[in-house]
Design brief:
The protein has 142 residues and is of the alpha/beta class. It has one domain: Rossmann fold (3-Layer(aba) Sandwich), CATH 3.40.50. The chain has 7 helices and 5 strands; from the N terminus they run E-H-H-E-H-H-E-H-H-E-H-E. Strands 3-2-1-4-5 form a 5-stranded parallel sheet, with helices on both faces. Helix 3 packs antiparallel against helix 4, helix 5 packs across helix 6 and helix 6 runs parallel beside helix 7. The longest helix has 15 residues.
Protein backbone atom coordinates (compact mmCIF):
# COMPACT_ATOMS: atom_id res chain seq x y z
CA UNK A 1 0.00 0.00 0.00
CA UNK A 2 1.08 3.57 -0.71
CA UNK A 3 0.24 5.99 2.09
CA UNK A 4 0.24 9.70 1.32
CA UNK A 5 0.58 11.72 4.54
CA UNK A 6 -0.22 15.39 4.81
CA UNK A 7 1.35 17.40 7.62
CA UNK A 8 -1.43 16.60 10.09
CA UNK A 9 -0.55 12.91 9.66
CA UNK A 10 3.21 13.51 9.99
CA UNK A 11 3.24 15.65 13.16
CA UNK A 12 1.60 12.90 15.29
CA UNK A 13 4.56 10.70 14.37
CA UNK A 14 6.83 13.30 15.99
CA UNK A 15 4.91 14.25 19.14
CA UNK A 16 2.24 12.40 21.07
CA UNK A 17 -1.25 13.51 20.03
CA UNK A 18 -4.67 11.88 19.87
CA UNK A 19 -3.98 10.68 16.30
CA UNK A 20 -0.51 9.28 17.03
CA UNK A 21 -1.53 5.61 17.36
CA UNK A 22 -3.48 5.73 14.09
CA UNK A 23 -0.63 7.46 12.26
CA UNK A 24 1.92 4.92 13.56
CA UNK A 25 -0.39 2.07 12.51
CA UNK A 26 -0.71 3.48 8.98
CA UNK A 27 3.06 4.06 8.78
CA UNK A 28 3.74 0.44 9.73
CA UNK A 29 1.12 -0.96 7.32
CA UNK A 30 2.36 1.03 4.32
CA UNK A 31 4.85 -0.33 1.80
CA UNK A 32 5.69 3.21 0.73
CA UNK A 33 5.02 6.49 2.56
CA UNK A 34 4.82 9.65 0.47
CA UNK A 35 4.46 13.35 1.16
CA UNK A 36 5.34 16.56 -0.66
CA UNK A 37 8.32 18.82 -0.02
CA UNK A 38 6.14 21.47 1.68
CA UNK A 39 5.36 19.10 4.55
CA UNK A 40 8.78 19.74 6.08
CA UNK A 41 8.21 23.46 6.59
CA UNK A 42 4.60 22.92 7.65
CA UNK A 43 5.66 20.38 10.28
CA UNK A 44 8.47 22.60 11.56
CA UNK A 45 6.02 25.52 11.78
CA UNK A 46 3.46 23.38 13.65
CA UNK A 47 6.09 22.32 16.16
CA UNK A 48 7.23 25.92 16.66
CA UNK A 49 3.62 27.02 17.19
CA UNK A 50 3.07 24.23 19.71
CA UNK A 51 6.08 25.50 21.64
CA UNK A 52 4.85 29.12 21.51
CA UNK A 53 1.45 28.03 22.81
CA UNK A 54 3.04 26.08 25.65
CA UNK A 55 1.96 22.66 24.33
CA UNK A 56 5.63 21.67 24.02
CA UNK A 57 8.64 22.62 26.08
CA UNK A 58 11.67 23.73 24.06
CA UNK A 59 13.57 20.48 24.61
CA UNK A 60 10.61 18.45 23.31
CA UNK A 61 10.26 20.77 20.32
CA UNK A 62 13.97 20.38 19.47
CA UNK A 63 13.71 16.60 19.86
CA UNK A 64 10.69 16.60 17.54
CA UNK A 65 12.65 18.57 14.93
CA UNK A 66 15.43 16.00 15.15
CA UNK A 67 12.77 13.33 14.74
CA UNK A 68 11.50 15.15 11.66
CA UNK A 69 14.97 15.00 10.12
CA UNK A 70 15.13 11.24 10.78
CA UNK A 71 11.60 10.62 9.52
CA UNK A 72 12.22 12.73 6.42
CA UNK A 73 14.96 10.34 5.27
CA UNK A 74 12.40 7.51 5.28
CA UNK A 75 9.77 9.33 3.24
CA UNK A 76 9.36 9.41 -0.52
CA UNK A 77 9.17 13.14 -1.12
CA UNK A 78 7.34 14.63 -4.10
CA UNK A 79 8.90 17.78 -5.47
CA UNK A 80 6.85 20.89 -6.04
CA UNK A 81 7.09 21.87 -9.69
CA UNK A 82 5.00 24.17 -11.84
CA UNK A 83 2.77 21.35 -13.09
CA UNK A 84 1.89 20.35 -9.51
CA UNK A 85 1.32 24.01 -8.60
CA UNK A 86 -1.12 24.41 -11.49
CA UNK A 87 -3.05 21.28 -10.50
CA UNK A 88 -3.09 22.52 -6.89
CA UNK A 89 -4.44 25.90 -8.01
CA UNK A 90 -7.27 24.08 -9.75
CA UNK A 91 -7.97 21.99 -6.64
CA UNK A 92 -7.99 25.11 -4.47
CA UNK A 93 -10.73 26.54 -6.65
CA UNK A 94 -12.64 23.31 -7.29
CA UNK A 95 -12.72 22.14 -3.66
CA UNK A 96 -12.41 25.48 -1.80
CA UNK A 97 -9.09 24.44 -0.22
CA UNK A 98 -6.40 26.57 1.41
CA UNK A 99 -3.08 26.75 -0.44
CA UNK A 100 -1.08 24.01 1.26
CA UNK A 101 -4.13 21.74 1.48
CA UNK A 102 -4.57 22.16 -2.28
CA UNK A 103 -0.90 21.16 -2.72
CA UNK A 104 -1.44 18.03 -0.63
CA UNK A 105 -4.59 17.24 -2.60
CA UNK A 106 -2.76 17.50 -5.93
CA UNK A 107 0.33 15.68 -4.65
CA UNK A 108 -1.68 12.70 -3.39
CA UNK A 109 -3.44 12.50 -6.73
CA UNK A 110 -0.06 12.04 -8.46
CA UNK A 111 0.52 8.76 -6.58
CA UNK A 112 -3.10 7.62 -6.61
CA UNK A 113 -3.71 4.01 -7.44
CA UNK A 114 -5.76 1.05 -6.34
CA UNK A 115 -3.61 0.63 -3.23
CA UNK A 116 -3.19 4.29 -2.26
CA UNK A 117 -4.53 5.81 0.95
CA UNK A 118 -4.38 9.55 1.66
CA UNK A 119 -4.14 10.44 5.36
CA UNK A 120 -5.09 13.65 7.15
CA UNK A 121 -7.25 14.95 9.96
CA UNK A 122 -8.33 17.97 7.90
CA UNK A 123 -11.96 17.36 6.94
CA UNK A 124 -11.94 19.66 3.89
CA UNK A 125 -8.88 17.91 2.47
CA UNK A 126 -10.29 14.46 3.19
CA UNK A 127 -13.51 15.45 1.43
CA UNK A 128 -11.58 16.74 -1.60
CA UNK A 129 -9.61 13.51 -1.82
CA UNK A 130 -12.79 11.44 -1.64
CA UNK A 131 -14.36 13.58 -4.37
CA UNK A 132 -11.22 12.91 -6.44
CA UNK A 133 -11.70 9.16 -5.98
CA UNK A 134 -8.98 8.55 -3.40
CA UNK A 135 -9.33 6.25 -0.43
CA UNK A 136 -8.85 8.27 2.75
CA UNK A 137 -7.62 7.69 6.28
CA UNK A 138 -9.01 10.13 8.83
CA UNK A 139 -6.45 10.28 11.64
CA UNK A 140 -8.93 12.14 13.88
CA UNK A 141 -11.41 9.28 14.03
CA UNK A 142 -9.15 6.25 14.37
Amino acid sequence: MIAYLDTSAVVPLLIEEAGSPACRQLWEAADVVVTCRLTFVEAAAALAKAERLGRLVSTTQRAALTGLERLWRQLNVLEVDMELVRVAADRAHRFALRGYDAMHCAAAETVAGARTVAASRDQALLSAWRRSGLETFDTATR
